[in-house]
Amino acid sequence: KVKVFVAIKRSLKPGDKMAGRHGNKGVISKIVPIEDMPYMENGKSVDVVLNPLGVPSRMNVGQILETHLGWACSELGEKINQIVKLHQNTNKKNALINEILKKIYGKKIFDEKIKSLNNKELEELSVNLSSGIPIATPVFDGASVDDVTQLLELANLPSSGQTTLWDGRSGEQFDRKVTVGIIYMLKLHHLVEDKIHARSTGPYSLVTQQPLGGKAQLGGQRFGEMEVWALEAYGAS
């Protein structure tokens, strides 16, 4: 008995489904070159643009909190990275890193855990933190608004968590500030390649004389009232 597994690489395409960690799922509507994406003042482009209408209706504000905290932690990591790169003098470098870590973790945790580290251990910690500060925030006893604001200000970011973006296509500034940050995004196992389906004439239900439903039955697309209105608006009814 021989088992053969064939692995293929499926790159992301419009129609594929993605989600964050707060039930904020959705399908990709458009993929554009990086130079067409909105960019920040420092020239860094955003990777994903999410529709803000997905927040109030579902009331999953956790995604906003994750966005703010992710941005603050990423920038603080970059700050530590710059100190590690720029300063050759070990004592001066360690003093600056200790100063930042005391502000991030608070005096109590700093005195308990970090103060006692030797130069080698502190250097190792700095390298680990330079890609971003790892944090966890419990459900009901998590970061308060003040905590988030302080962390953003410590990272020299706007305390609102919002910044001005420029349109990558026209180079024009957007009218309003935009919430920007770093979050986890997951690719879900609902790929448009597996779902795409069409039919011309095919099987009908014996009882209702309507086309069957679903790809497996070679069914038709169900049109609700609103879809019918869309057709009527086109004059295609």
UniProtKB/TrEMBL annotation:
Record-annotated DNA-directed RNA polymerase subunit 2 hybrid-binding domain positions: 2-217
Domain RNA polymerase Rpb2 stretches: 219-237
Alphabetized PROSITE patterns for the sequence: RNA_POL_BETA
Keyword vocabulary terms for this entry: DNA-directed RNA polymerase, Nucleotidyltransferase, Transcription, Transferase
GO molecular-function terms, A-Z: DNA binding; DNA-directed RNA polymerase activity; ribonucleoside binding
EC number: 2.7.7.6
The protein's enzyme class: transferase
GO cellular component: DNA-directed RNA polymerase complex
InterPro entries listed in its UniProt record: DNA-dir_RNA_pol_su2 (IPR015712), DNA-dir_RNAP_su2_dom (IPR007120), DNA-dir_RNAP_su2_hyb_sf (IPR037033), RNA_pol_bsu_CS (IPR007121), RNA_pol_Rpb2_7 (IPR007641)
Gene Ontology terms describing biological process: DNA-templated transcription
Name of the protein this chain belongs to: DNA-directed RNA polymerase
